[in-house]
Design brief:
The complex is a heterodimer of chains A (112) and B (117). Chain A is mainly β. Chain A is built from no helices and eleven strands. Chain B is built from no helices and eleven strands. The chains are: A mainly beta (112), B mainly beta (117).
């Protein structure tokens, strides 16, 4: 069983839709959670970084963490064609320099 | 925001050539940098952790003599693919973590697409 499970999609939505991306994890030692966006042929770009249960909002993006259920989500409001990318969840156990464990990534297409 | 620069972005070379990829943190110092490999439509696979001033730590199955890592300063790590062969063709990505702040996340470069003919 993988430590982090993420639905690979692909996910296709119309412009303006609310997008929900999710990851589950099995190891309760994970304490820090990230969402990255990766455009084709580019490196991942950090979108959100959280380390406590609850919601964190940044513009159209909201990251949600539920440590009791070992479940994290990224919501995108008013989705735009420019949001079309692969979204990777990632998490790690410690603060300083520890390796990240990634989900497989969800490919999202927002249609105009 | 934090910026990590990776160079070159694209390399095409003949089999047997050695290729050096640079990873620089532009606006922060990084005691630790990471090197990943990514195959099409797959997630990132960690190859090694690069520590400034000490030897890199390689993941299981990654040949350290094949993938040489040097982290000579707090802003620069290099990955050299020695005697590259077609099976080494891939997308290589580095990341760096700001050494200030216990909770700093990793920031990624834009990757290097390596094609060995």
């Amino acid at each position: 069983q993988k430590e982090v499970e993420q639905d690979p999609g692909p996910l296709s939505v119309p412009e303006g839709a609310i997008v929900s991306l999710n990851c589950t994890y099995s190891n309760s030692a994970f304490q820090y959670f990230m969402w990255y966006r990766q455009y084709s042929r580019k490196g991942p770009e950090l979108l959100m970084y959280t380390y406590s249960s609850g919601n964190k909002e940044d513009g159209r993006f909201t990251a949600q963490v539920d440590k009791s259920s070992k479940y994290i989500s990224l919501f995108i409001r008013d989705s735009q064609p420019s949001d079309s990318a692969t979204y990777l969840c990632a998490m790690n156990r410690e603060t300083s320099g520890s390796r990240l464990t990634f989900g497989e990534g969800t490919q999202l297409t927002v249609n105009p | 925001g934090a910026v990590v620069s990776q160079h070159p972005s694209r390399v095409i070379c003949k089999s047997g050539t050695s290729v050096k990829i640079e990873c620089r943190s532009l606006d922060f110092q990084a005691t630790t940098m990471f090197w990943y490999r990514q195959f099409p439509k797959q997630s990132l696979m960690l190859m090694a952790t690069s520590n400034e001033g000490s030897k890199a730590t390689y993941e299981q199955g990654v040949e350290k003599d094949k993938f040489l890592i040097n982290h000579a300063s707090l802003t620069l790590s290099t990955l050299t693919v020695t005697s590259a062969h077609p099976e080494d063709s891939s997308f290589y990505i580095c990341s760096a973590r700001d050494r200030r702040g216990q909770l700093a996340p990793q920031h990624f470069g834009d990757g290097t697409r390596l094609s060995i003919l």
